[in-house]
Amino acid sequence: MTVIFSKACELGLQAVLFLSTKEDRVFNATEVSKELKVPKEFVSKVLQILTSSGIIGSKKGKNGGFYLAKKPAEIKLIEIVEAIDGLDLFKTCVLGFPGCSHETPCPVHDKWGKLREEAYKMLSEETLEELKEKTKNKLKLI
Question: Which end of the chain is more exposed for a tag (fewer CB within 10 A), N or C?
Fold first, then answer.
């Protein structure tokens, strides 16, 4: 797990990235689970959250599954994070101190605040399309 995101959020980002690689296809939870090497039950739960938030769509039936509800260029990464983890992580103390604020900062308040602002800015500006292209380019280098 990362410092910032929950395991579910990490999976959500990976699942949406996976769906974006083959926009013309519908994938069921089993296929996503196998691709990401994560238990199907966990994948199903995260995919339902993403469906409820309108980031992905679902199709019922024999040939049903999940697909992107919008074009990758229209999905900001912050939307995925917000759907799964919410935005409190960008507002609350990283150490969990309830009284932490600019007036009464915890030991890491100022440094964490800068990192938090940069992370929020990046996630708000970066689209799924940009992440997909960067991922493709990285895989070509390996």
Answer: C
Is 57 a member of any domain?
Answer: yes
CA distances from 91 to 3, 37, 48, 81, 104 (A): 15, 32, 26, 14, 15
Neighbouring-strand partners of residue 79 = none
CATH of the domain at 109: 1.10.10.10
Residue 137 forms part of a structural domain: yes
Mean pLDDT per segment of 10 residues, for the chain of length 142 residues?
A: 81 96 92 96 98 97 94 98 94 88 91 91 97 78 44
The residue behind tokens 């380019």 is 137
What does the CA dihedral 57, 14, 21, 116 come to, rounded to 10 degrees? Answer: 100
User: Using CA atoms in the order 103, 105, 109, 114, what is the torsion angle rounded to 10 degrees?
Assistant: 10
- Say what the pTM is: 0.87
